[in-house]
């Protein structure tokens, strides 16, 4: 998903898992020259969600270092690398919607 490439370097500000609704929401903040921009990435139709880390210590700076998407006919898998050795998030979902907070436009995937 091309729109997600822009999230590299953003800080993960929160994760909300709504298991009954099969929805995962990621809060992300991207530092820009004109000031920070906050985004919400809503993943719908989630069939798998996991995060992994080789350490149980909190992530002091959860920066997204990589975003990769793998598409199947009915779903997509999104892999997020975190700026910490052996850490990341993986979500398999049917739809991804990226929204910028505030009165700005939305991007859909």
The description of the largest β-sheet is: 5 strands, antiparallel
Low-confidence stretches: 103-109
Number of domains: 1
Q: In terms of structural class, how would the helical and strand content be classed?
A: mainly beta
Count of DSSP strands: 9
Strand order in the sheet with the most strands: 1-2-3-8-9
**Spatial separation of the terminal alpha carbons:** 6 Å
Mean pLDDT: 88
Q: Classify the beta-strand content into a percent band.
A: over 45%
What's the helix-strand series?
Answer: EEEEEEEEE
Q: Helicity, in percent?
A: under 10%
Number of helices: 0
Any idea what the radius of gyration is? 13 Å
Question: What form results from the Cα inertia axes?
Answer: globular
Protein name: Immunity protein 50
Task: Indicate the topology.
Blueprint: E1 11-18, E2 23-30, E3 37-44, E4 48-52, E5 64-71, E6 76-82, E7 88-93, E8 95-100, E9 106-108
Antiparallel strand pairs: 1-2, 2-3, 3-8, 4-7, 5-6, 6-7, 8-9
Task: Explain how this protein is built.
The chain has 109 residues and is mainly beta. It has one domain. It is 0% helix and 54% strand. It contains no helices and 9 strands. It has a 5-stranded antiparallel β-sheet with strand order 1-2-3-8-9, with no helix packed on it. It has a 4-stranded antiparallel β-sheet with strand order 4-7-6-5, with no helix packed on it. Strand 5 and strand 6 form a beta hairpin. The C terminus is likely disordered.
What key attributes describe this structure?
four-stranded antiparallel β-sheet, 9 strands, five-stranded antiparallel β-sheet, mainly beta, globular, 109 residues
């Amino acid at each position: 998903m091309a729109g997600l490439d822009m999230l590299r370097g953003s800080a993960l500000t929160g994760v909300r898992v709504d298991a009954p609704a099969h929805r995962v929401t990621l809060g992300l903040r991207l530092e820009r020259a004109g000031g920070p921009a906050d985004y919400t990435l809503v993943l719908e139709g989630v069939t798998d969600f996991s995060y992994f880390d080789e350490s149980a210590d909190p992530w002091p700076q959860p920066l997204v270092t990589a975003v990769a998407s793998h598409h199947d006919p009915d779903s997509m898998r999104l892999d997020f690398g975190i700026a910490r050795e052996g850490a990341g998030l993986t979500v398999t979902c049917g739809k991804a919607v990226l929204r910028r907070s505030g009165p700005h436009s939305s991007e859909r995937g």
